[in-house]
Amino acid sequence: MNVVRWGGAALAAALLVGCAAQPPVPGWRLDLRQAVEQGTLAYLQGHDRVASVHAQRAQQAAAQSAQATALARQALAHCAAQLAALQGQGCAAAAPYLADATAAEQTYAAWLAGWPARPWEGPGRPDAATLPSAARALAQAWPAPPAADLARWLGALDDPLTRLVVGGWLWHAVGLDGAAVAVLVDTASGQGWRRPLAAWLAVQQRLAERAGDTATAALAQRRLDWLLHPAVAPASGPSSAGAAPQPVDSAPR
């Protein structure tokens, strides 16, 4: 099973690489792919109960194989989504399987935990060559940034989830400027991913306040309010449904 990209649907697709024109895919892999895709989407959208159900399905599907690689990957996919939403680093859920997994899973777990910006104390010796392309670029360039203009570099990454995961790693490792954070806000907003959008809007607000950019800070706060406290349109009562509007001069006062 080759690693194409990590995180959400991309990881699930990686589990099925090479399936075309080959024997039928085992049911557990199909179940795993669907559960990871649906669980990641639910998590990013902020639907915690649904995400939890799919996470359990993914773990159970991977456990049917008793393969450390599959079990580690389904855990790492969820941890990558958490990093995209700035919900911590590392992946404790993958730890029980890493010693028996391959260098790819061990290295990705190390990267999620901050390697090479931080030393890796888990199993295996991280090998940047096994990482997906964006993470590999960061690891191989470290301690220098992968590009002089991180905002442009992030914006050039094709996959929205990859962009947010890498942005989360950079934020914890070296920090980001307002332009790069704006790229991540736009990415989450464009996808309708409520959880990372809230996280990156909060970052944008703090950076703008520190820079004295009151207009950007105020807009970020308004967007957070719209996101977290959406206005609910009043429901039409049965008596008003289908009723013709009254003339202004005869309306009740």
Automatic annotation (TrEMBL):
<feature type="region of interest" description="Disordered">
    <location>
        <begin position="233"/>
        <end position="253"/>
    </location>
</feature>
<protein>
    <submittedName>
        <fullName>Uncharacterized protein</fullName>
    </submittedName>
</protein>
<keyword id="KW-0732">Signal</keyword>
<feature type="signal peptide">
    <location>
        <begin position="1"/>
        <end position="20"/>
    </location>
</feature>
